[in-house]
Write a structure and sequence with these properties.
The protein has helices spanning about 15-25, 25-30, 45-60, 105-120, 135-145; strands spanning about 5-10, 65-70, 75-85, 90-95, 125-130, 150-160, 160-170. It is an alpha+beta fold and about 180 residues long. The chain has one domain (about 5-170): Gcn5-related N-acetyltransferase (GNAT) (Aminopeptidase). A 7-stranded mixed beta sheet has the order 1-2-3-4-5-7-6, with helices on both faces. Helix 1 crosses helix 3 (about 45-60). About 35% of the residues are buried. The model has no long low-confidence stretch (mean pLDDT about 95). The structure holds coenzyme A. The site of coenzyme A has 20 residues, from strand 4, helix 4 and helix 5.
């Protein structure tokens, strides 16, 4: 049986190969939910360059880019981006899980752990996310982690060949997470 334990850690450049393999295999399945990427995104070299950029952002304090690990296998990513400090104290949450490991609770647990990092390590007070109206799995993950929808942004993101409406979600980080 697949390992059901979930952990998160900062992404490393040597994660590039496994991430490229997941993203190449899942390109069609993820297409309705994530912006289109150039072909280089699906290669190890492309992912190395991308991860180096993510880590540059992390050193500047703009982003907290992590991988989701099941047992000792990297199965996805969770990233806090657009970190705003000062009077906002918030970050935007994004994530994906490999199709080979979906439905095992990894995204739900990884988001719970990321909320703890946002509150305890990054000192933020608010998490935000957005989902397409049709992305019921992602909405399930957010609801399980105490996010509430607060509006719809029209024509908000270019995904799968058209500008799509999205639900905006918020989570105040001084509230305790409802999941372990
Ligand atoms: C969204 C995503 C990250 C979920 O990952 P996951 O590890 O499978 O999520 P979990 O197993 O933690 O939870 C998914 C929940 O949604 C439910 N779900 C899945 N598909 C569903 C659907 N079509 N309708 C309703 N619920 C659904 C599952 O039953 C599960 O609920 P449960 O915990 O009560 O069993 C994954 O599907 C993914 O990577 N999708 C493509 C990228 C993406 O959409 N990213 C988010 C962009 S906003």
């Amino acid at each position: 049986m697949a390992d059901q334990t979930t952990s998160i850690r900062l992404i490393r450049v040597d994660d590039a190969e496994v991430i490229a393999a997941h993203k190449a295999r899942d390109r069609q399945e993820h297409a309705p939910w994530e912006p289109a990427q150039p072909d280089g995104f699906y290669t190890t070299a492309g992912q190395r360059a991308r991860i180096e950029g993510l880590l540059d952002d992390h050193r500047r304090g703009d982003r907290w880019p992590a991988v989701i690990v099941a047992g000792d296998e990297v199965v996805g990513q969770v990233t806090v981006s657009t970190i705003l400090r000062g009077p906002f104290g918030k970050g935007f949450l994004g994530y994906w899980v490999a199709t080979t490991r979906q439905g095992e609770g990894h995204a739900t647990r990884a988001v719970a752990q990321t909320l703890t990092v946002m509150r305890r390590d990054l000192g933020l007070r608010r998490a935000e996310a957005h989902t397409r109206l049709e992305n019921l799995a992602s909405q399930h993950v957010l609801r399980a982690n105490g996010f509430r929808p607060w509006g719809i942004a029209h024509a908000h993101i270019l995904v799968d060949g058209a500008w799509r409406d999205e639900i905006f979600w918020e989570r105040l980080l001084d509230e305790e997470p409802p999941v372990a």
